TrEMBL record:
This is Terpene synthase metal-binding domain-containing protein. The lineage of its organism: Eukaryota, Viridiplantae, Streptophyta, Embryophyta, Tracheophyta. One of its GO terms (molecular function) is magnesium ion binding. It comes from the Eukaryota. Keywords: Metal-binding. SUPFAM superfamilies: Terpenoid cyclases/Protein prenyltransferases, Terpenoid synthases. Its cofactor is Mg(2+).
Length: 403
């Protein structure tokens, strides 16, 4: 770093070394400025290399590395043809490849069975018969736990989390699309009271949703009680977003907190869950959860396009920031948001390296994978992992194995 010119001359053509530096920099935490500098330098040199070697076979791999670092992606859906293009075929590798295919087939069949269970659960609900929600696709909800928790032993957990995620999607649409301000205020007050009384003025679809919310939450609490002897209903109720969180939609994406609180109770614990351990969830928003919510909110604002049928109440951090800084350009605010996402990843890295002792390893891994899942679920352009995810989903529905 002390002599960049000398380094450029000596290592400017060392693609593998530069890629290794670039990938390593994505695992840094706050305060590791040296690793940050290494990441910037390696990125700069890789872009320079690309400008000189556009037609070389390695160029595709370099471009993919710069756009989608390994640490920020889900290995299950990465483009294997790009990652493995530099490896030579040998007997040992062929054996591993065959084992991988067998494992993939087993996991795919397991996922197919789970999506059948989830689809049947949704079809039997009164909610699914309501016109506003009849078009919903449980497969979209199931993709989150399917991709973020791949351990075969967590089949029940994936199914239960899909139910929770369905609740987030339904409530989100009610606030973004279907409800008036007066209706949403009454809806929220009813949810706070946790009683289905005084809701005569609400439309039927909101009444059904409230009943749906209570049933999912109470059933979940009962299962946790059976396992740990402690009723988490108060913590689960507190995790449900407030009206102002939906309408103002500040830095955090409200649904993330709901899903992660439920995931905390689902995954195997390193110690018994007690009132003292869950008080951390009641009183604070743990850093590992906050960093994920921040990554999702900012990434969605940076990359995702708003749906045409939304009424614009959810806003965008980029819009708010530009309103407060009139002299800033679009490019500058995008760079600012990108840096904020990078900082959130540093916080997430720190939390995954030195996790809170109340969080199990399985839960911590799930949290990191939620952040990795963000660009896939929002269908960001040119991301090859999106295509691979879509192909995997097609294989779940059709029952046909992937090539």
């Amino acid at each position: 770093m002390s002599n960049k010119r000398s380094f450029r001359e000596k290592y400017g053509e060392d693609v593998k070394g530069l890629i290794a530096m670039h990938e390593a920099s994505k695992l840094c935490i706050e305060g590791e400025d040296g690793l940050d500098d290494i990441g910037l330098l390696s990125s700069e040199l890789l872009h320079e290399w690309l400008s000189r070697h556009q037609n070389q076979s390695e160029a595709i791999y370099v471009k993919n590395t710069l756009q989608y670092p390994l640490h920020y992606g889900l290995s299950r859906f990465m483009d294997k043809s790009i990652i493995l293009s530099g490896l030579k075929a040998n007997n040992e590798w062929t054996c591993l490849e065959e084992l991988a295919k067998i494992n993939s087939s087993i996991v795919r069949l397991m996922n197919q069975n789970e999506i059948i269970q989830v689809s049947k659960w949704w079809k039997d609900l009164e909610m699914a018969k309501e016109q506003k929600f009849a078009h919903y696709q449980p497969l979209k909800w199931y993709m989150w736990p399917m991709a973020c928790s791949t351990d075969p032993s967590f089949s029940e957990q994936r199914i239960e989390l899909t139910k929770v995620i369905s609740l987030v999607y339904v409530i989100d649409d009610i606030f973004d699309v279907h409800g008036t301000l007066d209706q949403l205020t009454l809806f929220t007050d009813t949810a706070k009271r946790w009683k289905l009384t005084g809701i005569e003025e609400l439309p039927d679809f909101m009444k059904i949703c409230l009943s749906f919310t209570y049933k999912i939450t109470n059933d979940f609490a009962e299962k946790v009680y059976e396992k740990y002897g402690l009723n988490p209903i108060d913590t689960l109720k507190k995790s449900l977003p407030k009206a102002d969180e939906y309408l103002n939609n500040g830095m955090i994406s409200p649904g993330v907190h709901v899903v992660l609180i439920h995931a905390f109770f689902l995954f195997d614990q390193t110690q018994e869950i007690t009132k003292e351990t869950i008080s951390i969830l009641d009183d604070d928003f743990p850093n590992i959860m906050y960093s994920i919510a921040k990554i999702l909110r900012l990434s969605d604002d940076l990359e995702g396009d708003k749906s045409e049928d939304q009424n614009g109440l959810d806003g965008s951090y980029l819009d708010c920031y530009m309103n407060e800084h009139q002299d800033i350009s679009v490019e500058e605010v995008r760079k600012h948001v990108t840096n904020m996402i990078s900082s959130a990843w540093k916080c997430l890295n720190q939390e995954s390296i030195n996790p809170n002792p109340i969080f199990s390893l399985s839960f911590t891994k799930f949290c990191v994978n939620i952040a990795r899942m963000v660009p896939l679920m929002y269908h960001y352009e040119s991301n090859p992992s999106v295509t691979n995810l879509q192909e995997f989903v097609k294989s779940l529905v059709s029952g046909e194995p992937l090539e």
